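Hi R.,

Here's the chain you asked about this morning:
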Amino acid sequence: MTISVVGSDASLQPLSGVSSEVWQHHHMLDLDEFSRGDIENVFKTSNIMRQILDRDVKRVPTLRGKTIANLFYEPSTRTRASFELAAKTLGAGVLGLDVVRTSVVKGESLVNTLRTLEALGVDVIVIRHPQSGVPYIAVQEVSCSIINAGDGCHAHPSQALLDLYTIWRHIGKLDGLKVVIIGDIKHSRVARSNMWGMSKMGMKVTLSAPSTLLLRDIDQFISQSGMSHVDVVSNLDNAVEGADVVMPLRLQLERQEEGLLPSLREFTLRYQLDGRRLSLANRNVIVLHPGPIHEDIEIASEVAHGSQSLIEQQVTNGVAVRMALLYLITRTKRGDQT
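And the predicted structure, written out as tokens:
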């Protein structure tokens, strides 16, 4: 299977190398359902999509006739804009729903909203919701594809995929790399999906956070999930030592009101990624952040904007990864899903 790419001369040129023959996923709910081969397929396809994004004319007719609906029940800038740009670049129609201006405010249920979108002929619904598990309800109610763009504290699989792709694209491998995830693990859907994905790809994951911002029974969770090479090191200096990748998470400031942190000052002193701590990592360490960033809280400004930061590349790669997901998912027949 090939993708037709519109070149600068506006002629259609076949671009080979992207195949969805082994792709079996009609939905994307989280990375626990993805194999290593699935993730590698996303990387391969994302490389082709990056070529499209680097062209003078960033439009292809690959998904012409398809309609993608963005159904976001939470505020979002990066993820929503990224999915919208990905769909438009591939030639799909995009239905962006502002929930506060839809029938939801009149009491329409989630299920009725989903069914309405399906009746309108939508092929893929990209959904973000503050309640964990909502995408799993959605797949039981409609036959169109569902992509989880973040559900509560549970999962954010496309973010994890773009994180993995950014590391792989920059370093050239994932196996054996040490990655440190810092901060609010307890409330982070990004952390959960990355733990799944990184473990599957043979990475060594170290979590570093105050005990109040870790998952309850974290060791039991890791063991029962079958994740290999995931551990917890509370002292950040020790955790960062020898790291290949360091990823601070956004500190959700509303959590301080719940009494989980004594003060922002103490968190900053113990868990901010600054230049001194970064110097304890490997010489070629890279820094990621899922955004939005609270500069000089979870990450020092000089680190966020330093030479080892790939935060802006994550944003660009996010469009390519989401293009790849839309391409692969829309080519899977409903009866072929796993």
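The longest strand covers residues 145-151.

Let me know if you need anything else.
M.
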